[in-house]
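Entry 12.
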Amino acid sequence: MTPITLVEGRRIALSNLHKVLYPRTGFTKGEVLHYYATVAPALLAHIHDRPVSFLRYPDGPDGQLFFTKNPPPGTPAWVKTAPVPRSDDPGAEQVLVSDLPALVWAANLVVEFHVHQWPAATPAVADRIVFDLDPGPPATIVECRPVALWLRDRLAADGLHAYAKTSGSKGLHLAVAVEPTPSARVSAYAKRLAQEAEAALPGLVVHRMAKALRPGKVFVDHSQNAAAKTTAAPYTLRARPQPTASAPVTWAEVEACRDPGDLVFLADDIPPRLDRDGDLLAPLLDPARAGALPGTHR
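Predicted 3D structure (tokens):
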């Protein structure tokens, strides 16, 4: 019999709690749910008002993985949704994970959380810039370090403050809070900086997605700023061999990285980090810290 859990007044059926999702560590579905409930305040702060896409892996990272944007079948009526106009479906909607019950319901589906760079109230008007630094083997996150530092300083020259998090997979994400700006304009700016990074670090950086260009280099993926694209949310677990999380990190931690393991954080690492440091990405949530893109006047 599927147990029913009451979460802030919502009845949620939780299934297969003892199922091992990460065989390498024995991490179970119940532990996944416990993780998300524990980090909920920090995670929800970053996703509660953003349409969410799910990468589902119900049988673990070695099983079937499938990406879904539409609300999954059986989505409870109390889970909020928001319109997300798409060229292929003008009436499309996506889920809003706006509170703890919605988070627990979604976590029970076994998902990665991916979000747009704009809030639900203003589709295609971004309040974030993101750069996904993706190392092509044999490069690792160690090679991402100088690229991240170059981008941090370049953004600072434009009055923009970058914050870093691990992707939870292979690389690093940089995030910048910006004043609301059309996604097309943010995308153009991000592409220009990726091209500048390639020019400044030609043996290390590539700004184009072609796989033939990427071995041994760091792909600065600027494309996730497009209105239709999404990026792994802070604190989401990833469908990787171990229960790695997309973990906010300090610039001191980035600068000190000399081994790929230096910036790998598992689910059990995140609550102690939050207790010690708080949410390192909290400044992204403060409108007073949002910067204006060059050429935009307050």
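Annotation: The chain is about 25% helix and 25% strand. The longest strand covers residues 125-135.
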